[in-house]
Amino acid sequence: MVITGSTLIDGTGAPPVPDSWILVQDGKFTEVSTAQRRRGMMTLARNVKVMDGSGKWIVPGFVDAHVHLDSRDDAKRMIRWGVTAARWMAEDVEKSRKRALSSRSSLESPDLFPASPIFTAPGGWWSSQGPDRRLNRFPATPEEARESVRAAKRLGSAEIKIMDDDMGWCRDPMARLPQIRPEVFAALIAEARDLELRVAVHAPQLKDAREAARLGSTALAHGILDEPIDAETAALLQARRIFYVPTLDIYDFLADPRAFIARALGDSRIRESLSKQTLALYRSDAYFETYRKRYPNSQFVADHLKTAYENVAKVRAAGGEVALGTDMWAFPGAGLHLELEDFVGAGLAPIEAIRAATLASAKSLGVDAERGSIESGKRADFVLLENDPLRDIRNTRSIESVYKAGRLAWSRYRRGAPQ
Ligand SMILES: [Zn+2]
What we know:
The chain is an alpha/beta fold. It has a domain at 62-256 and 289-370: Metal-dependent hydrolases (TIM Barrel), CATH 3.20.20. The chain has 16 helices and 17 strands. It binds zinc ion (ZN). Zinc ion binds next to loops.
């Protein structure tokens, strides 16, 4: 297949290329050029399908660097919104590895890259989500921590996740949760790095994030909310190439759930992609009451939202790498587009925001050799857009079609396409 005439935004942050010429063979981009350069060159083999992309924009498949999957339907929604790969925070190593394998051949799921298991303190945040059947994800001592990480490696984990949070910032005046002990935290990271596993750490508070960076984590799964990031920590993120995943969308949500839902539903493209039941839920008082009870400290989040946005700018100014992850329970898939808008709100140019959601996220997963940009030799994961995302970042929502490894996974013109 060759896609001709579209404006190419390749995911690397390079300026857009008008009138591009992109050849896809065996699920990969094999030539990325311009129509002008191609003109007069050898003619194409007869079996090459020519797709006219003129008047459209082509971007790499999006890579969400922070998701949880509640259902198969969530995975389908991600595909519908152009997400072709995702870091999946998962409790059970073996189960998630199997599901990740089956995602590779599926047009109904992004390719999943588990960060698994999710370690936390006994009784800590995320301890109620169930155990891993094969290892202890609530280690109480450094020895238990090391043993669990070795087990995770044996079961096929390439990345672990650690929760380091008392949740006061969103749950006060509820009781603060037990936080993972410093020596257990250090042992988890040290053992993982010795075994060449990546380590994503959930640490929205500066003191915890700083410790995670010092100890050698490879990604911060949330932005820092409670305090302005200090120059030393920002420099450390840059020096150690630790990926910063701001998840501004969840802070927006927790600061004011009603405003966040109203903003999302204010876009007809998102509104029309939801089922009647989901819409009814998001319009019910009961929904907001659930979140008010679960996260009663919305005032703290609202008061520090500006800090979270400014911290993204500070990390960038220090030369740090920002990747895009959503952690978005309300809008799987669509959340990525809300987060892109937030990134522009935090001062990124649209082309940089797109790079964060593609190449930078792929780098954070260690898969940028084959994913994350439209370059010759990489997998043909791509999205065709009907409107210019550089003029208005919300135009990443104008999705015409989504391709995974060169195969059509979703099109707005296909009959019966799930919205
Ligand atoms: Zn999460």
